[in-house]
C-alpha cells in the first residue's frame, strides 16, 4: 500500500514539473537585437528580448532588462 501511494505521488510530481517547465518558451528567433539584462546577481548580454524572457522564466521570473544593446 505504501508503495502504491509513493508511485502515485511520484507521478503527480513528475506531471507538475513537466507542466511548469512547459510554460517557458524555449524557441526564439535568430534575429540579433541585443539587450542587457540582470537575472539574480548576473548581468549579461542576451541575443534578443525573447532569449532574455526564456532564461528569466526558467530562473523564476525575477530578472530585469537594464537597457537595449550590449552591457
Automatic annotation (TrEMBL):
Taxonomic superkingdom: Eukaryota
Keywords on record: Signal
Signal peptide range in chain numbering: 1-22
Gene3D superfamilies reported for this sequence: 3.30.60.30
SMART domains with a match to the protein in the record: KAZAL
InterPro entries named in the record: Kazal_dom, Kazal_dom_sf
Residue ranges annotated for the Kazal-like domain, each copy included: 18-71
Protein name: Kazal-like domain-containing protein
High-level lineage: Eukaryota, Metazoa, Ecdysozoa, Arthropoda, Hexapoda
Amino acid at each position: 500500500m505504501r508503495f502504491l501511494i509513493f508511485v502515485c505521488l511520484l507521478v503527480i510530481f513528475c506531471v507538475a514539473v513537466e507542466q511548469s517547465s512547459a510554460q517557458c518558451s524555449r524557441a526564439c528567433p535568430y534575429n540579433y537585437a541585443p539587450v542587457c539584462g540582470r537575472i539574480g546577481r548576473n548581468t549579461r548580454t542576451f541575443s534578443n528580448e525573447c532569449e532574455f524572457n526564456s532564461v528569466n522564466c526558467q530562473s523564476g521570473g525575477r530578472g530585469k532588462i537594464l537597457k537595449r544593446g550590449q552591457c
